Amino acid sequence: MLIELDSVSKIYNQGQPNEVRALSEVSLAIPPQTMVCLKGPSGSGKSTLLSIIGCIFAPTSGRATIAGKALARLPDRFLTVHRRATIGFIFQRFNILPALSVVDNITLPLLPLGISPKVRRERAVILMDQLAIRHREHFPAGQVSGGELQRVAIARALVNDPPIILADEPTAHLDSRLSSEFMQIMADLKHAGKTIVITSHDPLVTEHPAIDRVVGVKDGRIDVP
Amino acid sequence: MNSALEKHLNILDYALSALWRHRLKNGGIVVVFAAVIFLVASFQLVTTALTETAGKVLAVTPEITIQRMSAGRQEAIPLAYAEKLHDIFGIRAVVPRVWGYYFDEVRGANYTVLGVSADMPQADELSRAVVGGVMGSGGQGKVVVGRAVSQALQLQPGQLFSLFRPNLSLKAMTVAGIFRPETDLLTADLIAMPLVEARDLFLIPASKATDLCVYISNPAEIGTIAEKISKLLPDTRVLTRPQIQKTYQVVFGWRSGFASVCLLAALAAFAILAWDKASGLSPEERREIAILKILGWETADVLAMRFWEGGLVAGLAFLLGCTLAYLHVVFFGASLFRPVLVGWSVLHPALSLAPHVTLKEVLLLLAFTVVPYLAVTVVPAWRAASVPAESALSG
Amino acid sequence: MRPASWLLLVVALSLAFDATLLAVGQERRIAQQRELPLLHTVTAALGLSDLCVATEARYTRHPAVSDPVAPFMDHPGAMEHFPTGSFWAPPPFRR
Lengths: 225, 395, 95
Description:
A: alpha/beta, Rossmann fold, 10 strands, B: two-stranded antiparallel ribbon
């Protein structure tokens, strides 16, 4: 299993009056080269689950093993280092920095890895060619079209060649044409060997043929239908 | 290349391009900051240069000067006082000096009139510093004038001119020579003449002088002898050479005057500006930091980026301000400070300042300007770097 | 060229410029040093105690030998009205 959660709980502000139990006793296993959709209303604990899978923070209790490493309550640094190597993120509205050029946005994850400008660009060029956005290389990201922006976000998630891609509500602000285009690219990536976790309640995503499994999340638990 | 170094270069690159994207705003801060540093550094350089020059040039000033004080003001001193000093062992010579100011009402200029005794040390070598002849007394006393005086009165060697005595009678004098330009810093406003001529001009009786210069064989005894003199002559003020030299160290101190008030106000205004700029963390900045962190930037990396931004602004402003200050003081004679430095003076030498820049002073300036700026930008940087990564995710 | 290289270039150029300035300034200092014996002669022969920088007021023309009340001719608490007073402190009080 590439992603393995064993009775994972997450409690925010533990022991304080504003304590929030976001996840309780969640167990989930995702094998490599699959595409899983996490489905649930906002506030269901979906984002917390994604954060744990994405090595942003460790669970309060339970065992989470991501790409062979158990997330204990280690200092942030260790999580960051592991995250850099294993996870590629695609955000809602893509979270592209509009003032930076397309190529600079794509190579952002490579900066803290100490990779030289030349190598950075070489890697970005390969991805831009694959995703047909090479002609936008030096455009400010704020000035490219929605479809191109989506591909910039995908290129950024792929640039450090991670085994796992996490997409957080990727189609929430896209029309159906761009949404299916996005899913098509995801399907191709799955075939290329990536493991993909998408949070969404968009039927275009949940009912896509490339999705291997839909996991319902409700009130901090896996919702078994 | 070493990947840790490359990582830092990458962060530096990122910080630089961030600064460049907001070049108007950051450029403005650099300009204002550089202006403040320029003012502080210029002031520092001018005062260092003057203090240093005074220290060097005035190293051979008379060991002890005795002035008579009456009702809190200086008065002419009777020559008889000199006789009383005979008993003090260690005094080499006591030379009377007559000097004072002459206000030229037509030009609004103050001249310094100096009556010189032939007993002064190196008096016979004075001609080396003069273009033309030496001074002398007689019917129309021969005087030597400074360059600024010769320009103000349009005097040439050999020319005749007159000054008013206190009783408004005219005293005629001939210009024997003009002090060399190299000595401007000491002589620009001088009208030097023999002692008797100066007495005649100011109508000071032959039994009196303005003050007495006391020369001492062993400089180590200056303090003891000065003490003996002040006991012997209770109505006098005794000035020693070390005191005179010290004057120039305190005279340009951080004075509660116009210049320092302006500088402090500028510094305070700048600190407020810097704080305001650095403390506001806009939603865009928060979002950017959250994205960077989720993409694998550590808190330390974000902090380093912010440090670079603040450090570069402050560093460039410091470099710019110091360079301009040096140009201003050394190559333009501190022309911006001139109005304050010389006030309403009509006569003043062309200042040729060449201060010695020491590492200590540079560090001091750095501590007074760049360090406070970094301090007010560090606190917000901490806050910025602690934005949680998951805030980039949707709720 | 990457931005960091530009920065290095700019800093190197300005430091080189500053070094040149300092060198020229140093040259001047040396030139002034050569005139020092002449200035010493003048100082000794005339018994001078002060530099001639400002000539407007006696406590800025001769700060070292002015009496303590010179800046406050009329009243010890009087405001100074000479501009140089903001640059030059009154002579330190001594007996």
